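Hi R.,

As promised on Friday, here is the backbone we talked about, encoded as structure tokens. Could you run it through your design pipeline when you get a chance and send me back a sequence?
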């Protein structure tokens, strides 16, 4: 690895995002381009900037470069074995330099398959795995994947790195890739019960997906017709519920800002419409299985796990549906873990709330603000029920 630090060359921190890295590179390129900067070192500086950006803009080369940086830092931080004073150490260093011809050559770095057992590499691998677990708990998928790739560059037989990569692929809906990583991890760590459970769950989902694909290939028109019928039936039922609510409430509510004082038709109609929508979307295949999308947990090697995302969203939606949607969209976008199914759920629930607010003209604002608190949890329940019926 070159002695020059590419991050310092570009003037960015090590955790810089790809967009910020590109922005910084363009700024420096405009300043240090040889046609603009007339200094003697402009060409050399511009070459260094280009090389740094070439390495850091590619996720694979950046992960390898970060691993080399951490390894160099670990070597520099190792305590010295000599315990004497500075002068004694200098004397020994001087003596060593005079007798280099008689000293044995320094051993080469171990092969990648055996680096995990080397203390120097083991320290870096442990730090990278800890960073990957932390990133996975935050659902920062790109960071977790980058750390695991760096681990595999140092130790290609690391089971935990393959396990975390399988978790990343599972969250992203890449079932085949998740099964591949879990299979490799099981071959390297066959006694890991947690890993075997993840593999069996992914394999079951892959088998179900293959069966659905085969049925779709065998009778694509019939399957599409059934899905369309499920959607039309769901929309029809929701329209009937909305019409009954509009007629049963008389267009208004006695105390619109207190949900438990709403008319029974409104109080029951909102969750009923949400449950029907969740059932129809799941049965028609508009959303992936709720267990995969909402009950995904990432456990650490010590067995600790985080609260499933679905539980967090349901609890937040009981407090404020719109706040739950905004927080999910912001956090998932930043962590590159945005789920199309969850976004679909929020959009459908928002449309249902809008329909109820339109027919309840006297209480449009309260229903628009508070109605989603009842619709989204019911949608999740219908989603889970639709998954069981589809299986």
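Update: got your reply. Pasting your designed sequence below so it's all in one thread:
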């Amino acid at each position: 690895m070159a002695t020059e630090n590419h991050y310092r060359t570009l003037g960015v921190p090590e955790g810089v995002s790809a967009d910020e890295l590109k922005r910084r590179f363009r700024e420096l390129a405009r300043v240090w381009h040889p046609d603009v900067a007339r200094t003697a070192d402009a060409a050399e500086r511009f070459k260094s900037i280009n090389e740094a950006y070439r390495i850091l803009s590619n996720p694979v080369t950046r992960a390898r470069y970060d691993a080399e940086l951490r390894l160099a830092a670990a070597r520099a931080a190792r305590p010295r074995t000599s315990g004497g004073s500075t002068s004694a150490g200098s004397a020994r260093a001087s003596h060593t330099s005079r007798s280099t011809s008689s000293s044995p050559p320094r051993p080469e770095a171990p092969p990648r398959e055996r680096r995990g057992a080397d203390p120097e590499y083991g320290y870096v691998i442990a730090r990278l795995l800890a960073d990957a677990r932390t990133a996975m708990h935050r659902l920062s998928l790109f960071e977790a994947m980058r750390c695991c790739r760096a681990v595999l560059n140092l130790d290609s037989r690391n089971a935990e790195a393959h396990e975390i990569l399988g978790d990343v692929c599972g969250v992203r809906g890449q079932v085949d890739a998740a099964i591949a990583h879990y299979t490799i991890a099981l071959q390297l760590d066959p006694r890991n019960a947690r890993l075997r459970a993840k593999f069996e769950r992914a394999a079951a989902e892959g088998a179900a997906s293959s069966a659905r694909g085969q049925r779709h290939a065998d009778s694509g028109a019939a399957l599409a017709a059934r899905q369309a019928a499920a959607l039309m039936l769901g929309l029809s039922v929701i329209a009937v519920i909305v019409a009954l609510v509009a007629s049963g409430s008389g267009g208004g509510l006695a105390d619109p800002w207190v949900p438990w004082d709403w008319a029974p038709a409104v109080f029951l109609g909102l969750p009923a419409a949400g449950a029907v929508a969740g059932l129809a979307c799941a049965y028609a295949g508009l959303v992936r299985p709720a267990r995969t999308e909402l009950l995904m947990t990432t456990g650490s090697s010590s067995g600790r796990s985080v609260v499933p995302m679905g539980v967090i969203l349901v609890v937040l939606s009981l407090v404020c549906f719109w706040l739950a949607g905004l927080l999910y969209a912001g956090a998932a976008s930043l962590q590159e873990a945005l789920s199309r199914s969850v976004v679909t759920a929020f959009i459908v629930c928002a449309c249902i709330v809008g329909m109820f607010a339109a027919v309840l003209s006297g209480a449009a604002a309260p229903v628009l603000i508070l109605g989603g608190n009842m619709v989204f949890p019911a949608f999740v329940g219908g989603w889970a029920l639709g998954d069981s019926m589809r299986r």
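One thing I noticed while checking it: The chain is about 70% helix and 0% strand.

Thanks again,
M.
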